[in-house]
Design goal:
Blueprint lengths: L1 E10 L2 E11 L4 E5 L6 H8 L7 E6 L2 E2 L5 H6 L2 E4 L11 H8 L6 H14 L1 H5 L10 H13 L5 E5 L7 H16 L3 E5 L3 H7 L2 E6 L2 E7 H5 L2 H7 L6
Parallel strand pairs: 3-8, 3-9, 6-7, 7-8
Antiparallel strand pairs: 1-2, 1-4, 4-5, 9-10
Helix pairs in contact: 3-6
């Protein structure tokens, strides 16, 4: 279980997070929705150690993560697929995947996990020797997710996986997120497509200007009038 309590983060004098508290129970899909600039990405970046918190606590299975190195956090079983995909364009698909396992020494198990990623994303296997920079946006997103899985995480954090992708590709990505979760990986999802995110989520939080303003099950927030008005306007179904 990931437990965040009273997390405060500032960037250059601006309060990005103002006492955020949330929980991500083991085995669940939890989504964080909110407008641009609400602090969603800052939350993930603080969990992974990329951003320093002013105060608060981030506990992973009872262990405090604040102040730990990024390597320690990854080794503890947390991985992130970043916004904008950030694949290495001049390296092949396979090389990108192997980089995801850079902290691991278990070669035979790494080979097994490459096969697992290829089972989840057959298109990546077809393009294993292709340079990542020549892939489509959807394929790059699949590669970013696959690369994060190569650290064999217990908690997978996804930052805007549907951004800039065609609707059919988004459906594919979300069905694979569901499959990864069914295979035992806990998911923390940040997503501007609130409709898709809430449909897949067990638990959901709404973040507005650095504060959690609403929380509940995905189903509850889908039918919440405030959420509908603010985030589901054109996606109502």
């Amino acid at each position: 279980m990931l437990k965040i309590e009273k997390l405060h983060v500032s960037y250059g004098g601006i309060q990005a997070l103002r006492g955020v508290s949330l929980e991500v129970p083991d085995g669940k899909i939890v989504t964080l929705i909110g407008a641009n600039g609400a602090g969603k990405s800052t939350t993930l970046r603080t969990i992974t150690g990329l951003v320093k918190a002013q105060s608060g606590s981030i506990q992973w299975n009872g262990e405090e993560l604040l102040g730990k190195s990024i390597d320690r956090i990854i080794s503890a079983g947390i991985a992130m697929s970043p916004e904008g995909r950030r694949v290495f364009p001049d390296m092949t698909v396979l090389e990108n995947l192997k980089i995801g396992a850079y902290l691991r020494k278990d070669k035979a198990e790494i080979e097994k996990d490459i096969k697992w990623v290829y089972e989840l994303f057959p298109r990546l296997e077809e393009r294993s020797w292709q340079l990542a920079g020549t892939l489509s946006g959807g394929e790059q997103q699949m590669l970013a997710v696959g690369r994060a899985l190569m650290s064999r995480p217990k908690l997978m954090m996804l930052d805007e996986p549907s951004l800039g992708l065609a609707p059919l590709v988004v459906q594919d990505i979300f069905s694979i997120i569901g499959e990864i979760n069914r295979q035992g990986v806990t998911i923390l999802l940040i997503e501007q497509n609130a409709n898709m995110a809430l449909k897949i989520a067990d638990l959901a939080y709404v973040l507005e200007t650095g504060n959690i303003t609403l929380s509940g099950t995905g189903a509850e927030l889908l039918t919440n009038e405030k959420v509908k008005e603010a985030y589901l306007g054109k996606h109502k179904s």
